[in-house]
């Protein structure tokens, strides 16, 4: 009974039946067609018996294995491999369906037509490009096999439930890791400037020599040895780099299947990794109406793992960003002058002006870089040729919004705050380049 339940009729079966019925109908008027119809019916029944008997194979005769990395990278083509084992002595036509997680089913092609050769493996591959972080589940794999007559097909169901976690793009992190090395080799002729604030770290204690700065005398060591000893310092090479990610409702807007928060999450991970590659300390702060996650800047690789896990769990909030709360958290938790890369999205000039006094206060004690998003669709709309009254109004609104964004960026720059106004797809490259530029110029 299970075998019969797994059998399905194919199009060729109905075409054969239709041809025989037409011959019987014509046979009512032309006796020759009646004889032909009976002959065709007998031949067709033999084909049906042969086709069904070909599909009578054990359940273990066809096996499927699905292999993939249990950790997927966000906004990256992650491969999924299917291996189908045909352990019979017959060749089959096969139609394979893999039940991917529902969220990815709309834009993932996971069905294949193939030929399963006898006693051989057939390898299939497809890619999933996740647009949201989280935990997702694969379901079963269905394989429909048919013989060379293709009148019937038999279904094989393979229970292959599996879990996958979508993390911020680790693959992009590895890809852009090379940017720091390439930038070192070019240096772009940038002139280094004196660092503001603490620019040295303790190296060792040495005997006093003529010309040494008397302010560096170590009186405790001097008292122990009975002669003047001084502290020797070297230029501080390890600076703190914090990525501040706005998780408020302003980052809920979608762009190319990814929300602005997802773009920010990928950028935060890549910047943190590059900072560690450049011997800096990497830290992270997520906030909306209040700071929700804070990782103190550190230089060990465990910090990067903490950042990855924190970004994996980052979620948007329907609330507005509270910059006063952000300022007090920075003031109490980040004592040393640091590079703060703030990834946010001001919708209008009034919102920026409300936050501007706080941003200026933060910029006094730290080097603040504010990253803002362009609305690419409105930018494209503003450059279209308007023909109707409706189009003219839509274009005017788009142009006003684009100007508004540029005014926000200009206002921030005029108050000495480094600002990046970027399209979401260019966020990674532009932010990396800004960090490497500031690093090369010795501003951090």
**What spatial order of strands do you see in the largest sheet?**
18-17-14-19-20-21
Oligomer description: single chain
Q: CA-to-CA gap between the ends?
A: 74 Å
**Total domains, how many?**
3
CATH class of the largest domain: Alpha Beta
CATH superfamily of the largest domain: von Willebrand factor, type A domain
Beta percentage is 25-35%
* Average pLDDT rating: 86
What Rg is obtained from the alpha carbons, in whole angstroms?
Answer: 33 Å
- CATH-assigned fold name of the largest domain: Rossmann fold
Structural class: alpha/beta
For the largest beta-sheet, the strand count, sense and barrel status come to:
6 strands, mixed
What's the number of helices?
A: 12
**Stretches with pLDDT under 50, minimum 5 residues:** 185-199
Helix amount, in percent?
25-40%
Q: What CATH architecture of the largest domain would you give?
A: 3-Layer(aba) Sandwich
How does this structure look, described?
The chain has 444 residues and is an alpha/beta fold. It has three domains: 1-167, Sandwich (Immunoglobulin-like); 170-193 and 238-440, 3-Layer(aba) Sandwich (Rossmann fold), CATH 3.40.50.410; 200-235, no CATH class. It has twelve helices and 21 strands. It has helices at 2-5, 11-27, 31-54, 170-186, 219-225, 260-277, 301-312, 323-333, 349-365, 376-382, 389-414, 427-440, and strands at residues 7-9, 62-68, 71-73, 78-86, 92-98, 111-116, 120-128, 134-138, 141-146, 152-158, 162-167, 200-207, 229-235, 240-246, 254-255, 258-259, 281-287, 291-298, 339-343, 367-373, 418-422. It has a six-stranded mixed sheet with strand order 18-17-14-19-20-21, with helices on both faces. Strands 1-10-9-5-6 form a five-stranded antiparallel sheet. It has a three-stranded antiparallel sheet with strand order 2-4-7, with no helix packed on it. Strand 9 and strand 10 (152-158) form a beta hairpin. Helix 4 packs across helix 6 (260-277). It is elongated. The chain starts with a helix and ends with a helix. Mean pLDDT is 86; it is low at 185-199.
């Amino acid at each position: 009974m299970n075998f019969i339940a797994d059998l399905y009729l194919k199009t060729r079966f109905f075409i054969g039946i239709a041809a025989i019925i037409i011959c019987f109908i014509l046979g009512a008027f032309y006796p020759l067609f009646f004889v032909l119809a009976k002959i065709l019916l007998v031949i067709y029944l033999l084909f049906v018996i042969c086709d069904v008997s070909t599909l009578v194979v054990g359940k273990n005769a066809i096996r499927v294995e699905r292999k993939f990395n249990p950790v997927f990278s966000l906004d990256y083509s992650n491969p999924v491999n299917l291996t189908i084992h045909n352990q019979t002595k017959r060749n089959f036509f096969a139609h394979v369906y893999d039940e991917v997680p529902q969220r990815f089913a709309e834009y993932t092609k996971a069905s294949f037509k193939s030929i399963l050769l006898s006693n051989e493996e057939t390898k299939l591959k497809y890619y999933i490009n996740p647009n949201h972080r989280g935990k997702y589940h694969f379901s079963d794999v269905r394989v429909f096999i048919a013989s060379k007559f293709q009148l019937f097909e038999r279904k094989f169901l393979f229970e292959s439930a599996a879990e996958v976690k979508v993390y911020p793009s680790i693959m992009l992190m590895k890809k852009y890791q090379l940017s720091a090395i390439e930038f070192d080799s070019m240096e772009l002729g940038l002139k280094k400037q004196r660092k503001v604030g603490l620019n040295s770290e303790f190296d060792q204690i040495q005997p006093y020599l003529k010309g040494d700065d008397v302010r560096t005398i170590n009186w405790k060591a001097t008292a122990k040895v009975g002669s003047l000893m001084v502290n020797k310092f070297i230029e501080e090479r390890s600076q703190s780099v914090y990525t501040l990610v706005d998780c408020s409702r302003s980052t809920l807007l979608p762009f190319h299947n990814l929300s602005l928060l997802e773009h920010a999450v990928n950028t935060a991970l890549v910047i943190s990794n590059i900072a560690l590659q450049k011997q800096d300390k990497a830290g992270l702060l997520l906030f909306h109406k209040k700071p929700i996650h804070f990782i103190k800047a550190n230089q060990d690789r465990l910090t990067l793992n903490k950042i990855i896990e924190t970004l994996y769990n980052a979620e948007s909030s329907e609330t507005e960003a509270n910059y006063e709360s952000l300022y007090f958290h920075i003031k109490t938790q980040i004592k040393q002058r640091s590079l703060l890369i703030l990834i946010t999205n001001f919708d209008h000039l009034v919102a920026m002006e409300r936050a501007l006094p706080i941003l200026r206060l933060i910029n006094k004690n730290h080097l603040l870089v504010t990253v803002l998003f362009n609305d690419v669709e409105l930018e494209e709309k503003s450059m279209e040729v308007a023909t109707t009254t409706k189009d003219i109004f839509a274009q005017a609104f788009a142009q006003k919004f684009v100007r508004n964004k540029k005014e926000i960026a200009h206002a921030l720059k005029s108050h000495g705050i480094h600002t990046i106004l970027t399209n979401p797809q260019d966020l990674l490259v532009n932010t990396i380049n800004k960090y490497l530029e500031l690093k090369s110029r010795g501003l951090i």
